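Quick one: sequence plus zinc ion SMILES, need structure tokens.
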Amino acid sequence: MPSYENLLEKCRLKGLRKTKALEAVLKVMLKQEKPFSLVELEQDPVIKKTCDRTTIFRIFQRLTSIGLLRKLSFSDEKASRFSFNKDESHKEYLICQSCSDIQELDIGCPVNSIEKEIAETSGFAKMRHDLTFYGICKNCQED
Ligand SMILES: [Zn+2]
Ligand SMILES: [Zn+2]
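Reply:
Sure thing.
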């Protein structure tokens, strides 16, 4: 689990400018247990004080491009959530398309061996993947 200082350093190395807004977003991101939406983060008092939605949006884009955030897509773009890549390991997710509930899958990575094979045959290095499963959760099936 990285410290706030680690994160800030990582951002700096990738060319992000240290601003009050970036500091606030990183601090609040560290507290999130689950993937979060822009709107959810925006409601945090620390963020409210320091940045508006456009600023958060821009920071999210930068953090996604440097690999600190991963965007989980929903059919409704506004409902998109971001998962914070705290360390080198990654999570696979299961998302309900009806209520947008997100569950982390506790099965280990199902495609690790495929990834290795692709790396070997293609000669690619530093491989990564985004794997998300979609469906309708139990609660939503009952309605
Ligand atoms: Zn649901
Ligand atoms: Zn995986």
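The two ends are 39 Å apart (CA to CA). The longest strand covers residues 69-72.
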